[in-house]
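## Example record

The block below lists the input lines for one assembly entry, exactly as stored, with component labels intact.
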Amino acid sequence: MRDLEISNQELSDIAEEALGLAKSYWASLEGRRAYPSTTSENTTELFSRPWLENGRGREILQDFKSIAEHARPGTGRFFGYVVGSGEPIGALGELLAAVLNQNVTSWRSAPAATSIERAVVGWLAEAVGCAGFTGSLCGGGSMANLMALAMAREAKLPANETGVQPCVVYASEQVHMSIPKAVALLGIGRKNLRLIPVDDKFKMRTDALQAAITADREAGNVPIAIVATVGTIVSGAIDPLPEIADVARREALWMHVDGAYGGMAALAVPEKFQGLSFADSLSLDAHKWLYQPLDCGCLLNRHPDIARTTFSHSDDYVRILSEDPTEAFAFFEESIELSRRFRALKLWMSLQFHGRGAYREAIRRDLDHAQILAQTIALHPELERLAPVSLSAVCFRHRSKDNEAILRRVIARGRVYLSNATINGQFVLRACFVNHRTTPDDVRAIVSEIIAAAEELNC
Amino acid sequence: MRDLEISNQELSDIAEEALGLAKSYWASLEGRRAYPSTTSENTTELFSRPWLENGRGREILQDFKSIAEHARPGTGRFFGYVVGSGEPIGALGELLAAVLNQNVTSWRSAPAATSIERAVVGWLAEAVGCAGFTGSLCGGGSMANLMALAMAREAKLPANETGVQPCVVYASEQVHMSIPKAVALLGIGRKNLRLIPVDDKFKMRTDALQAAITADREAGNVPIAIVATVGTIVSGAIDPLPEIADVARREALWMHVDGAYGGMAALAVPEKFQGLSFADSLSLDAHKWLYQPLDCGCLLNRHPDIARTTFSHSDDYVRILSEDPTEAFAFFEESIELSRRFRALKLWMSLQFHGRGAYREAIRRDLDHAQILAQTIALHPELERLAPVSLSAVCFRHRSKDNEAILRRVIARGRVYLSNATINGQFVLRACFVNHRTTPDDVRAIVSEIIAAAEELNC
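Predicted structure tokens for the full assembly:
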């Protein structure tokens, strides 16, 4: 039986071997299939295993190769969902964060890490034109949206002490599934989420929003919040923030902006994001369009007092002895988590390593790639685009073939990976560019692969 | 301006430098102070910095030294809160997880990672005597407890569609702050959390629990769930699970067990955890008493159908095309998060590397260390213990001195770190052992440091 302690020499050797695996993997990326050739039988056979009494020692590193072979690789030819590309300096940041193993509950528990997280949150706020917003990092958009709506509820119709009272939340019918999920978790009930119709560009119709609020007030219902989306998950539409902010102000509602997919693009194209700073709260995902390894969500807000009212339920065992406001600062009084890992270190390293300009350019290239794809589709008579390209998501279909069958073949061919969505009840193909490794050739491969797959269907 | 792409050679060089920092840090651990000598002025000066337009490149690695100097180190002499020791093989697992950058939403998005997570969740369940439970990894106890109570609510008084109805949750007055926080978030209202008195061992009094439920029913209130705690945060008390399970069964209530601190000790001392498998849901934290780097919480449960009812709000854009049950599996339909990092890889590597026996022994040593401390306290006339030592937390005080002043001095001396808690309104010192690096000498240093600090107060 092995002790948990290992010698520095043994650890050093294993660490070098692990790093060698990482380096080989990075070097192999471009040669990999865009999606692994695997089945549930493969992964069950490889990875169903008991936890044995005796340690297997260093041989466990040998699993890495088969894990990588049955994993989605971060190649420049993966265009499914909204999946960032895992910038390697960020990955080294994750190593160092795990080595330091800070519990970033509060300054008292993690002085440097807390100061660094507060700094990088400020960078993100400033990068998207929301300087002065505060907030914290979290697991992702689902958590950020949940926290935002919890704050909205507590600001408008306090529920923490006595329980939820009936209230209503508004979002467009293109809203991300994490919003109905948050509304349900918070006890508001999904039937109290009004899904507002969108215009032909998939943006929320402000007239319909206003009408819904008015109708609710006339029925005696209590509106509390509007969720605007910057970068809807299907087509990347950006809701009209200034008009929504006007409604929110007039109606005294909380305005949350879900920018999990698109928000970081305000760094590159701020003109598309006018009105973002009117938000009361804003979700961002650095593991999407800031290319960081998972996980790295962020909730920014303009109301730290309401954050504390919403999330502060502290016990004496975490009572902080300091009078200094920085030293008394606790993330757990302004967010859901208590134990929190040092997510900020990868941002600290990766963002400074490359500089803001490099990130701005990478986002611009993703936007260009979407335009290249749209142009290629326009030139092909068998293909049609089904939504405007507002950011970097492109939705399209083959006019005459079974698109679901095409998608299966494209994925099986392994050169590019797309995912699917539904527009006006129709199954559509969807490519999304949030990947610093993608080249224009990778983009052009999308249409040629679709056409090749469609031709295979004829055979 | 730098591009985000870096050459394999440059990346290799930087990665070696980062690993060198990690190795030096590990080798330096035992020589470090148990808590850094730092102030808010230090960390503000060091870590307030703008995100510059141009990249700083490799020089950002030079920050690591000052970050480590202003961070809580994972030495064997840190006994504050419940902080695991960051097992290094687990940290290497975090590197490889960040390199692979899987988004473990579902098998479709991450085949190997999904199979591995399902395997390690099974290991944890089996290790604590709950074979057959399913579940998922999450950020920590706060998230696991929130998910558990969301499931309880949905199982007993469905709220997702129409909103919360008045209902009541029961827990002991020693319950962790994440439970009132979850009750508030779920819209139940903290006034509907009944804090049941404890006995002289800080265990929930089942007679009082039953009386409270009966009184609520007579008043027309609707009980839905009981939260038992295995390892209360202050003293490590284990609530009487078989008796609580009897009440839950008789009253048809959900029984959640918060084992974030203590649950994993069932691997080493199962006799203390009789009745754990009666739980409907169980929170565990592998980043606490399984020594893993943050974050690695887990919610186990016996009701995957209720998990799906509670958390499934899926959109077409994540619609899974497979009919195979493994390939159609999606974590986001059974938990809160959508984007999810590959938390399971560190468990896969670290747990197999060392083997189950090594973990069992490490937990036993922690239990022994608590007994050693209790014995040392008993031998010292100026010290008194204030709670039984049920697991590995020891609460005590100096009989005649200002214990808050002693604690400040102990921390400033830097040899050991303790935290504080409140017992019967009294400020107490608290040491908790969940650290594979701790030696008996480290344990003995606690009392000598307390006495030395107390003597300094006389000067």
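Chain B touches chain A through 172 residues (CB under 8 Å). Chain B has three domains: 10-75, 93-354, 356-456.
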